[in-house]
Amino acid sequence: MKTSYDLEYLPKPRKNGSREAPEITEIKSFLACKRQNMCFEYDNAQQARNRLKVVQRFRSGNGLQEVFECYRSDSCVYVVRIKKKAALNSIK
Q: What angle do CA 29, 61, 48 make, to 5 degrees?
């Protein structure tokens, strides 16, 4: 067993012991790397529509609107990193 004290970073506690959606875990690792886009493919369009709502809620709830975009096409959900230069141009 390993014990640590006075940590600089503490993870946020989860509500009611709920698990994080697998898409959110993947998006967090995507944002940590340098890749520009990613795709989640589902069995049907309805499932993709429902999972897009989860991704959009994570994006707006954490203030990540200027970091990445997300959209659906048929049975796929796409996540695209916004380039900093493009984000600055859209603000002006």
A: 65
Tell me whether strands 68-73 and 37-41 are parallel, antiparallel or unpaired.
unpaired
pTM for the structure as a whole: 0.71
On whether the CB atoms of residues 36 and 80 are closer than 8 A, the answer is yes
**Residue 24's pLDDT is what?**
92
Q: Burial letters for 32-70: b for 16+ Cβ neighbours within 10 Å, e otherwise?
A: eeeeeebebebeeeeebeebbebbeebbeeeeeeeebeb
Residues paired with residue 28 on neighbouring β-strands, in sequence order: none
Task: Look at residues 23, 31, 83, 28 and name the one whose alpha carbon lies nearest to residue 52.
Answer: 23
Distance of alpha carbon 16 from alpha carbon 14, whole angstroms: 6
Q: Which amino acid is at 5?
A: Y
